[in-house]
Design brief:
This protein has 338 residues and is mainly β. The protein contains no helices and 29 strands. About 3% of the residues have low confidence.
Length: 338
């Protein structure tokens, strides 16, 4: 769990319905640079965890750590502002989107890394400001959304190329007579999305994906067989990250602009609960492997510490919280074998 300002990662333990911080790991290389830890993921083999270090000049990094010692094993350079990432259980490669936050609004890339040698094999061009990304349950496809160009990308994890691209902006006029949610063209000739998708999560059991429309205050469901939008439903202001419980029953979303976490039943899209987070700016989500708990990173504002809230997914109640470093961001869950 990243602290952008002090460049730290917090190691947390959840036991007996209580979350505690057991270690803070200092990360980064250059004291004079703002190297912000952003995305974090654990290798499927449980031996390593990976951290994307964003904000660096000129490029960001991917750093590999041992889960045993939390010490650096290796690192490699990626693109501008590397963000979310995941390791495919099929190819063994790590796929990381380069968000390019400080660059011009032009297509960015997905870096493909061999985590054994920590070598960038290739970079695949996608859209403008790709942020949220996840790999399909079978490990064969990587899905990412580009925030500014408003597109969903499907990458062939074996062929290492873009398979399909889907425009997520709504071409239909809104029922209330307001302007359409179609993207706008800017002076630079690029489409600037009004949906501003920030996250995508494939369903663990069905061929569907769910996308956070941060600009349009909605969740967008995509039928991956038909490759088209199959549903849209409204959320609170500024949905940011989404995750689905491993059992496939619940969709959890951080409502960033309201400091809340929402829980939907995916069977009928009914809102089951909306929990006010402990502090402001709800960010990342991790879900326990038994589908019983959601762990929410909350950034905080000003001098506030970051917080991790734990939500019971059976009662839809906040059951525990712990303070971490400022501007808590990426978060990952790992069940350690005893």
């Amino acid at each position: 769990l990243g602290d952008v300002y002090k460049r730290q990662v917090s190691l947390l333990k959840f036991e007996n319905n209580e979350i505690t911080e057991i270690e803070r790991i200092t990360v980064g290389t250059y004291p004079t640079e703002i190297e912000g830890p952003h995305g974090i993921t654990v290798d499927p083999n449980g031996k390593f965890w990976y951290l994307s270090l964003a904000h660096g000049t000129p490029f960001g990094k991917l750093v590999k750590y041992s889960t045993e010692s939390n010490e650096v094993v290796d690192e490699t350079t990626l693109g501008l502002f590397p963000a979310s990432m995941q390791v495919s259980t099929t190819t063994g490669f790590l796929y990381c989107v380069n968000f390019n936050l400080h660059g011009s609004m032009k297509p960015s890339t997905v870096s493909v890394v061999d985590p054994v040698t920590m070598t960038e094999i290739t970079s695949i061009t996608t859209g403008s400001m790709p942020h949220g990304s996840r790999i399909s349950p079978d490990g064969l496809f990587q899905y990412s959304v580009a925030m500014m160009s408003g597109e969903l990308f499907e990458i062939d994890a074996l062929g290492l190329e873009v398979n399909r691209t889907l425009d997520l902006d709504n071409k239909m006029m809104k029922n209330d007579g307001m302007k359409s949610m179609d993207g706008m063209k800017s002076m630079d000739g690029m489409k600037h999305s009004m949906v501003k998708p920030t996250w995508v999560i494939p369903h663990p059991k069905e061929n569907l994906a769910y996308i956070a429309g941060n600009g349009s205050d909605e969740v967008i469901e995509v039928d991956l067989d038909a490759w088209k939008v199959s549903d849209r439903f409204k959320t609170g202001k500024g949905p940011y990250n989404l995750e689905i419980s491993p059992d496939g029953k619940l969709l959890i979303g951080t409502i960033k602009s309201e400091g809340k976490t929402a829980i939907w039943n995916l069977y009928d899209k009914k809102l089951l609960g909306e929990i006010k987070n402990t502090t402001s700016v709800s960010h990342g989500i991790a879900i326990s492997s038994d589908s019983k708990y959601a762990f929410i990173s909350v950034e905080g504002i000003g001098g506030e510490p970051g917080i991790v809230d734990v939500i019971n997914l059976e009662t839809y109640e906040l059951v525990s919280s712990v303070e971490v470093g400022k501007q808590a961001g990426g978060i990952a869950f790992w069940k350690k074998d005893i």
